[in-house]
Amino acid sequence: MIVPTKKQRFQTNVLPHLNSAFNLACWLTRSRQDAEDVVQEAYLRAFKFFDGFHGDDSRAWLLTIVRNTFYTWYQEQQKQRQETAFDEDMHDFSGVGVAGMAFADNNPETLLMQKDSERQLQQALHALPLEFREVMVMRELEELSYKQIAAIVGIPIGTVMSRLGRGRKLLAAILAPARQEA
Amino acid sequence: MMDHQETLELLPAFADQELGIVEAQEVQRHLDSCADCQREYAAQRIVSARFKKEAVYFDAPPHLAHRISSALPPEPVRAGSRRFSWMSLGGALAAGLALVWSLGLYLNLPSDQERLTDEVVASHVRSLQVDHLSDVVSSDQHTVKPWFNGKLDFSPPVVDLAPQGFPLVGGRLDYLAGRPVAALVYRRAKHPINLYIWPSNERDAAPQLQNHQGYHLVRWTWDGMNYWTVSDLAANELDNFVGLVRSTVRQ
Ligand SMILES: [Zn+2]
Fold first, then answer.
1. Domain of B184?
2. Does pTM surpass 0.80?
3. Record's InterPro entries (chain B) (predicted)?
4. Contact A64, A83 (CB under 8 A)
């Protein structure tokens, strides 16, 4: 019997979740380039800790690491930014909005192909505070259960529910004036 | 009886089908007679549906998998790329602690469910590969249901959903979790759907959607039966199917 090496097991169990990892990282960092770096760093960490992983939900496990890696990176960015005049608080709308547009502009092709309503949604989403954006992406795009999201974010299931509820209301509110103008 | 405020707070979970059967029924009862809650429920569903439909899903660029694979040991792990110069001792410690803490969470997650998920997807894939979707080919629930008699020690509920766009095409015996189970086969356009049913002594559980190896799965428990369904259908269509099965089985 051939026993697969750690690297082989890792490649079979964890590497297939690369799209999920990259998607989440893109929505968190709002930059493809930063997302690539965060994902690579997360994978290296995941490999280091893979021996200690005995669960079966390797995707949720990986996403937890991607998220932790992102927040460490994000805090460092914040620290650097404080030295410049630009203090983007985690829950601050205006700063996130500007950065969000910059992210969209990185992909002119995607931007051209997007319908107006999609572009509005994309911009509104980037304006959403991180704490709401992350649970919404995990729910609507990654289709994770409340229980999985609770474990990844480290919050009670009830908080997952209220963040999703408030996030959707917030998103609807951001989208509403845009629709009136159109 | 659930009051307005309680209901309002539970509406996101209700819209996501994350409530238990009892709570869901109570929410439904209040919803039937409260216009405010109906509006809020509709708003939750509209935003959720628009997000699913229109938000960009960022697939990883092809070079990333290669970049990661080649960064993995046997060569010793280097401390990340240029953007990760922040890995100070303090940061590394904090990250390590956070990770240990989140790993602790995962050790508590039930692993049987995940093993079963693998089995269900494997069974679904196998049923497609060998072109062996059905042992009894019939769109008539009154043919399919008796076919299981004597083959199983329980009688699976068999419903036809052709009028709603999910015709029953047959059934077969399968094995999951070490026991024989009923597999019902439905179709939506060209997409086959397997619905597995077997007895359970667990309490009712609301549908849970998951995504595994490119397939969508929904599982729930109701009235002494486990239900698992799997398909390559879009999540919302499979969700639709589950809603129909659940409401028809109950009649
Ligand atoms: Zn109400």
1. 112-250
2. no
3. Anti_sigma_zinc_sf, Znf_put
4. no
